[in-house]
Amino acid sequence: MAVARGDEPADLVLAGGHVLSVFTKEWLDVDVAVVDGFVVGLGRYQGRERLDVSGKYVVPGFIDAHMHIESSKLMLDEFSRAVLAHGTTAVVADPHEVANVLGTDGIHWLLDCCDNVPLDVFVMASSCVPASSFESPRRPFTPGDIESLLRRHRTIGVAEMMNFPGVIAGDAGELAKLETRLTDHVDGHAPGVRGPRLNAYLAAGIRSDHESTTFEEALEKRRLGMWVMLREATGARNLKDLLPLVKQHGTNQCMFCTDDREPDFIVEEGHINQMVRVAVEEGVSPEDAVVMATINPAMYHRLWRLGAIAPGYQADILVLDDLKSFRPRHVLKRGAPPQIKKLDVPEWVRQTVNLGPVDEASFRIAAGPKKIRVIHVIPAQLLTGVDTVEPSVRDGQLIADPPRDLVKIAVLERHHATGRVGLGFATNVGLKRGAFASTVAHDAHNVVVLGIDDRDMAACAARLAEIGGGIVIAEGGKAVEELPLPIAGLMSDRPLAEVHERLRSMERRLAAMGSTMAAPFMTLSFLALSVIPELKITDRGLVDVGRFELVPLAVE
Fold first, then answer.
1. Predicted confidence (pLDDT) per residue in 272-294, tens digit
2. Cβ–Cβ < 8 Å for 435, 457
3. Which CATH class is domain 61-303?
4. How far apart are CA 163 and CA 369, in angstroms?
5. Is the bond preceding 443 in cis, omega lying within 30 degrees of 0?
6. Closest alpha carbon to 375 in 154, 131, 543
7. Domain coordinates of the chain in residue numbers?
8. Residues in Cβ contact with 18 at an 8 Å cutoff, skipping those fewer than 6 apart
9. Which residue in 97, 236, 347, 544 is deepest, having the highest Cβ count within 10 Å?
10. What pLDDT, in 10s, does the model give residues 298-339?
11. 39 forms bridges with which residues in the sheet?
12. 160, 189 in Cβ contact below 8 A?
């Protein structure tokens, strides 16, 4: 207060910049005084240190309203280094990927790690482990597990309630997760939910959604009071389709999130700053775009000290050269350049692939059905379609048929070595030979394999067990390229540049093998998620998400 009054010098003064007031969307030509990591005053100030930002634009640090750190394939320290460079100073994370693999112990470990990075990581207690009864995690979460997480100081609410059919139907087990009496802050997940079903979902106390893919869907949700998270993920680029919601109705209750973003996206395009940049390119004012990246997510998530440059707010500050590129010249975290230390990873976090016996026979499907259900991959979306086709048969077995773009897909349980395998087919993939597989398979993170040849599919699975998880490509009955992800089978312990280079090399190899998918590994991982329409596959078989039930491969 003495510094704010002008009686004592500040620790740091940012002088000469245009400072955005996110409350009025005005640019103020004032100094910013910082003490002990907090902004204490706007005006004219003296400080022990002075940073000349004359002619630059000074805005709050960006906040990711909903994301999964594990999808970056980076350990928390390396993820922090990557996104802080792009101006993201806080994230609200749902660690349900780690939760499916390591249980509550994994989340408590991740929460402990958060204390040792400059990035502010706030956690929502994972509500759906597994996402549905059709998936097989290490162990299911109970309401008691959620309550234990809500008692941690970084946990600010209940994470996306993905079992929307269960909630809408009034399932007592799902509703119990929302009634812990420890919080009333609950994120949603309601892809395509409209009309009376949406009313029922909201009546349960859920207040946000990040799954809208059309303007009409997002508008209906916002009309009913839902906070709309505009998403731009690797496998679900929805931002441009949703921006008319902002241009026609303003920024109220709108915010940005990345959900699941892979390393190449971060390296080549950025993080939340990429969304701000695209929004401005599409006709949203810079002021409105920054508001959706700062104060709006802070207000929704009740992060009262974040999201603004004003007295009493944490000094998370970006200095920008212009309002087009949104690449920060300076990033200040609590009033200083962020310093990041290497984190240690315990051995129990690395030993997570427990796969039953597998060989090429594991992927055989006996002939018989005249018509089969096929997962239709939709480019740049998490949604899939369903096709009904005549299968190809050879030697009494259903086989992949590259000329018809019909590939085999399988999910193998990998937490308890049960040997359980779900088998099916997919199309709109383009693969002509070989196979590829991953232990990143939302949300239970079993082994998901897509391929032409059963022997190559088996080689992928076997190699994943040997390296402790990751991504593998096989041809000629052997693994030919891989990205180890030894941390829970989800994250690398290597630097961002190395992970990025390896992924790009593997994508080039898949393209040479015929794959037409723009983000093949992220797309593959979501083919196993049983709570996003229309047809998905788990280790228990094909899931009709609309009917919310397992369905046979054969169509009667």
1. 999 999 999 999 999 999 999 99
2. yes
3. alpha beta
4. 31
5. yes
6. 543
7. 61-303, 350-551
8. 27, 28, 29, 55, 56, 57, 58
9. 97
10. 999 999 999 999 999 999 999 999 999 999 999 999 999 999
11. 34
12. yes
Which strands sit side by side in the sheet containing 365-366, from one edge to the other? 365-366, 397-399, 392-394
| Tokens of residue 53, six digits | 């930002």
Q: Tokens for 57, please give them.
A: 């634009």
Q: What are 413's two structure tokens?
A: 């349980």
Residue 143, CA distances (Å) to 124, 155, 363, 493, 531 in order: 14, 15, 37, 32, 20
Record the pTM.
0.94
The answer to whether 542 touches 373, Cβ cutoff 8 Å, is: yes
- d(C-alpha 474, C-alpha 73), whole Å: 21
Radius of gyration, alpha carbons of the chain: 24
- In this structure, is the dihedral angle defined by the CA atoms of residues 98, 102, 107 and 111, taken in order, positive or negative? negative
Evaluated on CA atoms 285, 287, 293, 299, the torsion sign reads: negative
Neighbours of 361 (CB within 10 A): 9
Reply yes or no: is the peptide bond before residue 262 cis, omega within 30 of 0. Answer: no
**DSSP structural state of residue 425:** E
Residues 257 and 263 sit within 8 Å (Cβ to Cβ): no
